[in-house]
């Protein structure tokens, strides 16, 4: 949870957020459920979080139980917890690190061990294409916009194919109208102000692609302490890799740079053509003066794949069942060790993974009781 009002020692200054940044996120849901909101009943049923504890490893003990070894991050005290079922949900970086430090790793076949921590993938998302507009629609369908109007729209690809069987639009489009409401609720007040003409309506769109798992990316344990991760992740700014490897695996097609720029710009122009008095803030996608290079270095905010379930190397491949977890999210060869986070995903979806995570939670619920 982001707290911009803390002193260097971590204590609050004169205020403290009880809501997370963003319109909605998982952290906010957990905060409300565990009762961090003032006045909540601390004795009711719900989720309990053990604070100031670091999970060191998970070890097998007799009768198919597991020992969760933890260290108190303040006192250094080591405490163990025992359960017949354990769920790891530390994310695509920390979950494989934990598996590597646990006895279960040694029990995995060699070819499965080689998958732990590898396949790290995110969905490539372009930089925003922005413009000021006055209204949307034509004639009697025209709708005037004001700065108090806000909207977030998602254009989902139908997956239609061209005559060669390739996916025409292997991306979704996210569009925001006056997006400050969506991105900047309770934002860090110490951040630099965004350059903006608040007398006008601003619309931005960005293209979000899916991505098959990439075995050239991975999480390595640091040689010195086995805690700090070394992350190998190819930069999305390397457009040649996307065009020659990633997008062919996802959509089947191979395009040159200019073909790709043309696809983005033609689609961008179709979207903005629905608005009136369009005044572009950003240039077209492309290379050179006045153009916008589509992708940055890449991020791992929606990373996945480091503890994969059954997966496909590309859209035309058969499912590969050599995986770290099975379709019940259970680590192979174990009786009650599950993983429920983005690390098990067999593909990085074009859309943000809210529904995917909900689906994983529902699948996990079938095996817990």
Automatic annotation (TrEMBL):
MF terms (GO), sorted A to Z: oxidoreductase activity, acting on CH-OH group of donors
Q: Which InterPro entries match?
A: FAD/NAD-bd_sf, GMC_OxRtase_C, P2Ox-like
Q: Source organism's superkingdom?
A: Bacteria
Q: Which UniProt keywords apply?
A: FAD, Flavoprotein, Oxidoreductase
Q: Which family does it belong to?
A: Belongs to the GMC oxidoreductase family.
Q: Which residues belong to any copy of the Glucose-methanol-choline oxidoreductase C-terminal domain?
A: 298-361
Q: Which Pfam families match?
A: GMC_oxred_C (PF05199)
**Cofactors demanded by this protein:** FAD
Show the coiled coil region(s).
none
- Asked whether the UniProt record includes Oxidoreductase among its keywords, one would answer yes
* Protein name, UniProt field: Glucose-methanol-choline oxidoreductase C-terminal domain-containing protein
